[in-house]
């Protein structure tokens, strides 16, 4: 747990931590890969990260999950990444949207799983106040299947789940996919989300708090949680 004194400190500390993972891999490999979440919380971090002096032309950007929307839809995670990160230095990165016009959701999952074979330097995760991460929602009819899947990505139907906010059809990273990521970072802000995360730790119930999938991924390195009030 990394607790920061304020939003500005949190923003830049998160950006520096992500940039460090990419820089390390770029020293060792021809390309680095970064998986990102949508939502409003990571936006300031992405804007700060875009200014990092990295060889962005050697960085591939993928998504942790996506609503079943076209990538230019204002409510898509792809749109968030394009508008918040792919600017300044980071404009040179190669971005892989999960959805494309004319692509079936089965095709999107297959393409995501093909890319996942490459692994990833880091994944930036978020958490909702219901304890979900990626598109792994408590109470979702597909949660158990997603948690036990051997595939890195699956299609999920979160119909009737409040946290899905009216977008029930989604493509999501799974615990199996997280296990292929070298470093996992969970970015949360506010007392309420810290309380939810601590409740998840006390519970140990991944079906009630799917964020625990990030903690329990079959991985030797710890989950890095960056929090501020």
- Helix/strand order, N-terminal first: EHEHEEHEHEHEEHEHHE
CATH fold name:
Rossmann fold
**Which CATH C-level class is it?**
Alpha Beta
Order of strands, widest sheet: 1-10-9-6-2-3-5
Question: Which class of secondary structure composition applies to the elements?
Answer: alpha/beta
Which stretches of 5+ consecutive residues score pLDDT under 50? none
Q: Determine the number of helices (DSSP H or I, runs of at least 4 residues).
A: 8
CATH architecture: 3-Layer(aba) Sandwich
The chain-level mean pLDDT equals 95
What's the count of strands? 10
Strand content: 15-25%
Our measurement of the CA-to-CA distance between the termini, rounded to an integer number of angstroms, reads 13 Å
Estimate percent helicity: 25-40%
C-alpha geometry = globular
Structural Rg: 16 Å
Major sheet characteristics: 7 strands, parallel
**Structural domains: how many:** 1
Which SSEs are present, and which pair or pack?
Layout: E1 2-3, H1 7-28, E2 32-36, H2 43-49, E3 59-63, E4 65-67, H3 77-84, E5 94-95, H4 105-116, E6 120-125, H5 143-148, E7 153-157, E8 169-173, H6 175-178, E9 181-189, H7 191-203, H8 212-216, E10 223-228
Helix pairs in contact: 1-2
